[in-house]
Amino acid sequence: MITDHKNLIAGKWYACAFADDDRVLQWGAASIYRYDGDGCWSNEGGEEIDRLFDPYLQLYVAMDAADAYAQQP
What we know:
Elements: E1 12-17, E2 31-37, E3 40-42, E4 48-49, E5 51-54, E6 59-62, E7 68-71
Antiparallel strand pairs: 1-2, 1-7, 2-3, 3-4, 5-6
């Protein structure tokens, strides 16, 4: 698990999770995207993704606003 987006590896897929009000990471609600490097992300179709939906704030936030990232196999 990675909590600092600066430690992400380009070309890897990550689950991007947010913590609830009790600071418990909610992996079940995580979105999965590929980190392409230099702050760029993409989805399975290769489309660039520039924001995530935060289910607790109920709004879109920057990709580096996730509380944690888990590299996918």
